Amino acid sequence: MRALLIATLTTSAALALTTPAMAGGPNQLVANASASVSGGCACGQQDDKTSTSATVLSSYAQDLGGGAYGHASVTTKYGEQHVYADAFFPTGDPSPDVQSQGYSEFDENFAAGSVLPGLYNLVFNITGSMSTPPVFGPGANAYLNWVLEDMTHPGTLTFGTWIAGTDPSPLIAPFALSSADALSLRVMFVASAYAGVLNPSTKVFADYSHTAHTYINSTTGGPDVIGTSGHDYAQPIGPAVPEPTSWAMMLIGFGAVGGALRSRRRTPAAI
Q1: What is the pTM of this model?
Q2: Under 8 Å between Cβ of 210 and 240
Q3: Which residue in 31, 87, 163, 268 could disulfide with 70, CB within 3.0 to 4.6 Å?
Q4: DSSP 225-255
Q5: Of 28, 31, 22, 80, which Cα lies nearest the Cα of 51?
Q6: Minimal CA–CA distance to 211: which of 147, 107, 101, 129?
Q7: From CA 42, how far away is CA 20, in angstroms rounded?
Q8: Conformational region of residue 34, where left means phi above 0, alpha means psi within -120 to 50, and beta covers everything else
Q9: Do residues 81 and 189 touch, judged by C-beta distance below 8 A?
Q10: 143-194 pLDDT, tens per residue?
């Protein structure tokens, strides 16, 4: 059942979107942001961007004739992934649909001897939000896939999928390591949004910015787990980076405090 659901999500998220780039080597980052407004008017457009560096990648497509738009942004770092996608389709737009997708992936290697034999938890701490109004069609979705492999004695230690709205977070995948072998970890995270004639005047979004964090927790008191990239995977998630709306509220608050202080300094002292 889960395999069928994953296939359905993947198919619906990738409609009319460029196939995401795949990581091709050890310790490689991939980000793909894709947005498109397709349809029967001359103003439809598609915007696809791909990067293999840990920089913010944004894609934006807009139907200038009807007002529909899609947007996606991605930042990928070792152990940390930021993914966002939204889509808006106004009533009366002649285009049939608008869709966007953010995709990130990192491949991380662990040299032989860097992870000692013992029991571990591969932990994914994923928080975020998705649009809640009822929509028709694919709407918004997000999912994460992972696989951790033993490279010295080839075999899979743990693998699986997390699906937004279905699976809990943090997600904990236990595994045992019997010898200090070289390991390989691949983590892929996707967020997508779709809006069209079946759900007009509705903005759908999947916002997982600053909120997908991977770490490896030793249950037997082992040392830090350092990837070949230098990232420390023994560190659990820290405080979330404020979202843009939170930053705006903070700045407004700082401005109000500053204004109050300036006003107080200008008030004449009582005689």
Answers
A1: 0.77
A2: yes
A3: 87
A4: -B-TTS-BTTPPP-SPPPPHHHHHHHHHHHH
A5: 31
A6: 129
A7: 26
A8: beta
A9: yes
A10: 999 999 999 999 999 999 999 989 988 999 999 999 999 999 999 999 999 9
